[in-house]
Amino acid sequence: MNTYSRRHFAALGAASAIATSLPLRHARAAEFSFKLGTNVPDSHPLNVYVRKAAEEIAQATDGRFELKVFANNQLGGDSDMFSQLRAGALECFTLSGVNVLSTLIPSAAIWGVGFAWKDYPTLWNALDGQFGTHLRSQITKAGLVVMDRIWDNGFRQVTNSVRPINSPADLQGLKMRVPVSALWTSLFKSLGASPTAINFAEVYSALQTKIVDGQENPPAIISAAKLYEVQKYCSLTNHMWDGWWFLVNRRAWESVPADLRDKVAGIINKYALDEREEIARQNSSLQSELAAKGLVFNNVDPAPFRETLSKSGFYNEWRAKFGEEAWALLELSTGKLG
């Protein structure tokens, strides 16, 4: 009968462990490796759920398709990443229609019309329906691939370090950071503020150094980016909803076999719906957490703001810019604006 020492068993165990690890170390590289750039901090639900999607994609495609997530502007600001996407240096990018995308496709910004959406059910019925189909068709015509489901950023609130915003008069002369977007700039000018377009990667430092007094973002971003450290007041204006289209470089996407594209797109769209639920939960629950960190909240009546926008000609101006077809689809969901 053979006898084995403890040392022999240890050696056998080590050899077994090495053999088990070899397929992992020498697994074949993915046939298709796509980079995804995002512009929000790593802990934001957008990044959490695109990583979940990436994990499921790797499993569902048996490792043939790899989605690498580069969060928090690691690959540059919005303008830089959008240029990379169009050139093919970046395969995927999550981008707001109201932001840099509107520099290529002006009508992509239409969902950002000020004080248009009353609640989430109204919004999702529009964006998952005829209104969203129209917007995606405009993106497709511009040569980009866009996933069917949009990812949620949330309803935006105004923060600043000067005073609470209760009426349009409180915005007079306030130096407000806005994203790089004509619509955002127009909205805050029409309300009497002094807007400055700054990419998100530079917002914290701009607030800290008082280049601007305030900014506007959903609570999930205010929390993830720690903007409460450089802001005092948060006024619950719900002045605009914003989200991210999941965009893909067309040449890169068409290099992937159709069956694989269907799997990847299905998984991305599924996790977009999960991310929406998490964003809505966070944006409704974060107020107490942010208040404990020193942010002072106040509720806002939207009626005076809508009235100011109507009197200033804001709605008529953007109706003319977006065109009758897009505006009619918007008002089909929101009701009459202006």
Name its key features.
338 residues, alpha/beta, D-Maltodextrin-Binding Protein, domain 2, eight-stranded mixed β-sheet, two-stranded parallel sheet, globular
Q: What helical percentage do the residues reach?
A: 40-55%
Please report the total strand number as a whole number. Answer: 10
For the residues shown, what is the average pLDDT?
A: 91
- Any idea of the CATH topology? D-Maltodextrin-Binding Protein, domain 2
- Estimate nothing, just give the exact number of structural domains: 1
Distance between the termini: 94 Å
What are the segments in which pLDDT stays under 50 over at least 5 consecutive residues?
Answer: 1-26
Strand percent estimate: 15-25%
CATH class: Alpha Beta
Briefly note the structural class of the backbone: alpha/beta
DSSP summary: helix tally: 14
Compressed to H and E, one letter per element, the order equals HEHEHEHHHEEEHEHEHEHHEHHH
Report the CATH superfamily.
Bacterial extracellular solute-binding protein, family 7
For the biggest sheet, the summary is:
8 strands, mixed
Name given to the CATH architecture: 3-Layer(aba) Sandwich
Shape: globular
| Rg of Cα set | 23 Å
Q: Please state the oligomeric state of the protein chains shown.
A: single chain
